[in-house]
Amino acid sequence: GMPHVFTPQPPPPGMAAQPAPKPEPAQPAKPPPPPLPQRIQDADTSQVTGSNLIVVRTLHQLMERLLQTAPSPMEKRKLEDVSKRLGALLVKLNSNEVTPAVCDKLFHLCQALQAGDYRTATAIHVGLTTTDWAENGNWLVGLKRMIDSLSKDDETMLLAGAGGALGL
After folding, report:
1. How far is CA 34 from CA 27, 89, 128, 154, in A?
2. What pLDDT, on the 0 to 100 scale, is given for residue 56?
3. pLDDT exceeds cutoff 50 at 164
4. How far is Cα 37 from Cα 40, in angstroms, rounded to an integer?
5. In angstroms, rounded to a whole number, what is the distance separating the alpha carbons of residues 117 and 58?
6. What is the DSSP string of 92-108?
7. Are 75 and 67 in contact (CB under 8 A)?
8. What is the pTM of this model?
9. Is the Cβ–Cβ distance between 27 and 111 less than 8 Å?
10. What is the pLDDT of residues 61-98, one digit of tens each?
11. Concatenated DSSP letters for 150-166?
12. Which backbone phi and psi does 114 adopt, to 5 degrees?
C-alpha cells in the first residue's frame, strides 16, 4: 500500500519552537551593577560645602598625583577602581548622605594625607572601618588603597632621594 504519510513530530519536551538564545557561559550570579560608578573627576560635587569641599579637593589632587606617577597599566587600572569608589563618596557628600561624624573624620584624614602623615591617616581609616563600615564600605576600600599607594609612592621617592641607603 501507500507509504505512511510522515506527520511532523511535536518538538521533544523542553525544546522551545524558537531556537533558544545561547545561554551565557555560566558565571557566578553578580548583583545588579549599581548606577554607573563615576570617577572622582566626573562626580558632581556642586552642592558640597564647608570642610567637605576641602575633602573633595584633596581627593582630586591626590588622585591626579597618583595617576601621573602610576608606573604601569596595571597600577592605572587599580587606580581607576579606586577613583570610582571615591567618586561614590563624592556623590554621597554631594547629596548629604554622609554623617557629620564621618565627614569630620574624613576631613582630618585628608589633612593627614596632605601632610604625608600616613600613620595618622591609617589610624583614622581603621576607626572609620570599625564604626561606619556598613554605610561606607565601598569607598573605604578605595580610600585604603589610596593611602597605601601614596605611602608607597613616598617611600619610592625617599629611597631614590637617599640613594637607596635605607636598609629596607
Report:
1. 18, 14, 23, 34
2. 98
3. no
4. 9
5. 14
6. HHHTT-S-HHHHHHHHH
7. no
8. 0.73
9. no
10. 999 999 999 889 999 999 999 999 999 999 999 999 99
11. HHHHHHHHHHHHTTT-S
12. -60, -40
User: What letter does residue 85 receive in the DSSP assignment?
Assistant: H
Residues 29-66, buried b or exposed e (16+ Cβ, 10 A)? Answer: eeeeeeeebbbbeebebeebeeebeebbebbbebbeeb
Neighbours of 157 (CB within 10 A): 12
Q: For 161, what's the count of Cα atoms within 13 Å in the CB-facing half-sphere?
A: 6
The DSSP string of 22-34 is PPPPP-PPPPPPP
Q: Which amino acid is at 166?
A: L
- How distant is the alpha carbon of residue 86 from its chain centre? 6
pLDDT at position 32 is 52
Q: How big, in percent rounded to 5, are the helix, strand and coil portions of the chain?
A: 60, 0, 40
